[in-house]
Design a protein that fits this description.
By secondary structure, the chain is an alpha/beta fold. A hairpin with a 4-residue loop joins strand 10 and strand 11. It is about 35% helix and about 20% strand. The model has no long low-confidence stretch (mean pLDDT about 95). The strands form seven sheets. Strands 1, 2, 3, 5, 13, 14 and 15 form a seven-stranded mixed beta sheet that branches. A seven-stranded mixed beta sheet has the order 18-19-17-16-22-23-24. Helix 1 packs across helix 6, helix 12 packs across helix 13 and helix 13 crosses helix 17. The chain is globular.
């Protein structure tokens, strides 16, 4: 039997999953790392640390799975989107990666928008945002010209891991969508915008489909990881697309709510539709001829992580916080949280935005603060759903994924605020499994992604159902949430 692996390079950790072709997990290993914030608004990570942790998880997963390395047929990749990895002529990282959370290029987003002009509507189908590769590149060119001049290749975070595994340079459409340097409509680099911005036009890697084979494990990587040189490496996908794939969300009619470090509401479409006000993002999906429309928030589980680690300094598992939040009533007795700790993309496109707790009184306790933090993330995602509704995209069911799908309280909050049943899948690690599904297609185990998802992804048929009394409370709080942001937004740039 040929086994499959999926590697997901996230913002806080890398995970490696090994499964059989029917989707039964044999092993999962993960290793953590930090985000470096040298200055306010900066967010960087060292690609060499990514590789070191990836090697560790591959070795652990192989050992724990009890399979022979030569029985691992293929490996797919998933990774955090938007970020810039810059390599020199020797294919070594020139600098730390500027990742998606980085806000230093806030000014450059306006410049890119002005340069793009009609390309926003005809090719890009997205608005520039701080932390997107093309904005970070323009910032480098302006303020670190010597570093910029040394760049031979640019790539996304998971592409660097694939390069270390195979020795080949490349990227694929789903992840490249998030750079704002790709024609999402026509699936090629938008060289017209690249030239208008005065950026190098020979640093952009060749693009492939997510499920295609990039190569096999090179000798140096085999020595470090313990992998067989015969194992095929698949191009993979951006983590949003990989998570959708791992949950079987590859066709229209199903909406996905993912709350990991960041959070997203996404729906699959057959043609590259987009919001005329560009509050949503339109990305290429893993399945050929498919796109997905996404409300992508910069803030998700990271807000609860911030509260837990930096404010409460609480060492308990997140499941305990989820249980404590259940002790507070829906609406947290009037306590509201604006969750924009990292600025915000959808729905407000505000890099200056920050977090706000509002309505706090003497009656409020820790349980209220924890629940309000969860609710704040969902209020923002409900705004994203409202925009999807405006475009005529409405799913018949909601699939929840990410850390928030594992907590019964947060899952119920999703059902109550979104006002629809919320389902989960039996998938243990959605992005990892999505990457492994891509490997199953690239290695010829399944004919296409739909066939693979039908065989591998299993849905739990008992959803979290909306509680009508909670729905009424959240409808009132939702309006307050939006009004609160609109009243304070002009203050943010003055901080």
């Amino acid at each position: 039997m040929g086994y499959l692996a999926g590697i997901d390079l996230g913002t806080s950790s890398v995970k490696t999953l090994i499964m059989d072709p029917e989707g039964h997990t044999l092993a999962v290993s993960h290793a953590d790392y930090d985000v470096t914030t040298a200055k306010i608004g900066y967010a960087e990570q060292d690609p060499l640390i990514w590789w070191d942790r990836t090697v560790k998880t591959i070795r652990e997963a192989l050992e724990n799975s009890c399979i022979r390395p030569e029985d691992l047929t293929g490996i797919g990749l998933s990774g955090q989107m938007h970020g810039l990895v810059a390599l020199d002529e020797n294919c070594r990282p020139i600098m730390p990666s500027i990742i998606w959370m980085d806000q230093r290029s806030a000014k450059e987003t306006g410049e890119i928008k002005e340069l793009a002009k009609e390309l926003l509507d005809t090719e890009l189908l997205n608005q520039p945002g701080a932390g997107m590769m093309i904005c970070s590149l323009l910032w480098l060119k302006k303020y670190q010209r010597e570093t910029y001049n040394r760049i031979r290749w640019v790539m996304l975070p998971k592409d660097y891991i694939r390069y270390r595994l195979t020795g080949t340079i490349g990227s694929e459409y789903s992840d490249a969508s998030s750079t704002l340097a790709l024609s999402v409509r026509n699936r090629h680099w938008c060289m017209e915008l690249i030239r208008r911005a005065g950026l190098k036009d020979d640093i952009w890697p060749t693009l492939s489909e997510s499920w295609q084979v990039a190569g096999s494990v090179q000798e140096s990587a085999a020595r470090e990881t313990g992998l067989s040189r015969n194992t095929k490496i698949i191009f993979g996908a951006g983590d949003s697309s990989a998570q959708l794939t791992g949950n079987g969300v590859i066709e229209p009619g199903v909406t996905a709510c993912n709350i990991g470090t960041a959070s997203q509401i996404a729906a699959v479409v057959d043609s590259p539709l987009y919001d005329s006000q560009m509050r949503l993002q339109t990305w290429c999906h893993t399945a050929e001829g498919k796109w997905y429309i996404q409300g992508g928030s910069l803030n998700g589980g990271s807000t609860l992580g911030w509260l837990k680690k930096k404010i409460l300094k609480d060492s308990r598992p997140y499941s305990d916080l989820d249980q404590e939040a259940a002790l507070a009533p829906a609406g947290s007795e009037g306590l509201l949280f604006i969750p924009f700790l990292a600025g915000e993309r959808t729905p407000f496109m505000d890099p200056y935005a920050r977090g706000v707790y509002f309505g706090m009184g003497m009656k409020h306790e820790q349980r209220h603060i924890i629940r309000a933090t969860m609710e704040g993330v969902m209020y923002n995602l409900k705004e994203c759903v409202s925009i999807l509704d405006e475009t005529g995209i409405r799913g018949t069911r909601m699939i929840a994924s990410g850390g928030a799908a594992k907590g019964s309280t947060w899952k119920q909050i999703q059902a109550d605020i979104l006002e629809m049943p919320v389902y989960t899948t039996k998938t243990e690690e959605e992005a990892c499994q999505g990457a492994a599904i891509l490997a199953s297609v690239g290695c010829g185990i399944y004919n296409d992604i739909k066939e693979a998802c039908d065989a591998i992804v299993k849905v739990n048929e008992t959803p979290a159902e909306p509680i009508q009394a909670n729905v009424e409370i959240y409808r009132r709080q939702q309006q307050l949430f939006k009004e609160l942001y609109l009243k304070v937004k002009d203050l943010y740039p003055r901080l």
